[in-house]
Amino acid sequence: MFQKNVQWFVDRLVERMVPSVGSLFTSALQRMLILNHAEHHDQLEDQAQQYEAAGKKEIAKLIRAQAQSLSLDKPLPLADQVLSEFGAENPALFEATQTSAPLALTDSTKRRKPRRPTVDADPEAGQGQS
Fold this sequence. Notes:
Radius of gyration: 30 Å
Mean pLDDT: 76
Distance between the termini: 80 Å
Largest sheet: none
Helix content: 55-70%
Order of helices and strands: HHHH
Low-confidence stretches: none
């Protein structure tokens, strides 16, 4: 009876704690993403101001336009276009990236363990070199 009551209490506690901890975790993650996104925009604006000061107003205008297209919902707005163009130019490579099998290392890329130095069995052999 006591074990059943304890189990019921633990189950209720877990039911209430898991959503709270999950909410806290997702809130912290979302805060981190928003702050990093704002910092990124600030860096882009600083870079645009540097180009403006150097007399390169078209580059500054381009940076600002690209910065406005960035969002948290779609961080790489041009990714679909780049991938489709890459696939059109290199169909064999694009198809290779769509497979689910991981790339395997070839024998030439595998590393071997270094050999341990051998110790002479004769202790006098090493004394003559000093």
